[in-house]
Amino acid sequence: MDSGANSYPEAVDTERLHLRRFQPGDRKGIEAVWADPDVWKALRGGEPGDPAAMASETFERHLRHWDDHGFGLWTATELGSDELAGWIGASHPTFVPEVAHEIEIGWTLRRKYWGRGLATEAARAATEAASEQLRPERLISLILPTNARSVAVAERLGMAPAETVVHPELDVELTVYELRSS
């Protein structure tokens, strides 16, 4: 388990969102997120694939991440709603070997939740939790250069481009945005 992870919050409420640790019953909600073609374009740069397969892989990886490291991504729902809007939080980006040891702040929301500042609101909560509890030298976000919305979120968090890495599965370059600890 990572240092400091034993006090990492399993749930956080922001002004408009309830963020909580992935739970076994979340699989269908994760599948609904992957069923959104705009999510595929933003995260993978291409046409939609199999939502059930991606949901299963995402779901299992992030359940395991919490068990292995004591922290991880949270599901996101609007306060007063049961509909899963997406996921946001901190995790090791094991899908890119060069930065797998680092802590990435990631966010993914279904299209109907875009344009309202929800990703920034939740990513800010994740950044604060990771900075306070995990104390990394830097936090990163891996973003397709064509994903202008995520670039804007990273910049609002105070992140700046640092380098590029290749996503080995997709064979596309990702920009590594970083926020260094002060």
Helices, by number, come to 5
**Euclidean distance between termini CA atoms:** 24 Å
Per CATH, the architecture is: 3-Layer(aba) Sandwich
Question: What global shape is seen?
Answer: globular
Poorly predicted spans:
none
Tally of separate domains:
1
Q: Could you tell me the CATH topology label.
A: Aminopeptidase
* Order of strands across the main sheet: 1-2-3-4-5-6-8-7
Average pLDDT across residues?
90
Taking all Cα atoms into account, the compactness measure Rg is 15 Å
What does this structure look like?
- The model has no long low-confidence stretch (mean pLDDT 90).
- The protein is of the alpha+beta class and 182 residues long.
- It has helices spanning 27-34, 37-44, 51-69, 118-133, 148-156; strands at 11-13, 17-21, 73-78, 84-91, 103-109, 138-143, 160-167, 172-180.
- The two termini are 24 Å apart.
- Strand 1 and strand 2 (17-21) form a beta hairpin.
- The chain has five helices and eight strands.
- An eight-stranded mixed beta sheet has the order 1-2-3-4-5-6-8-7, with helices on both faces.
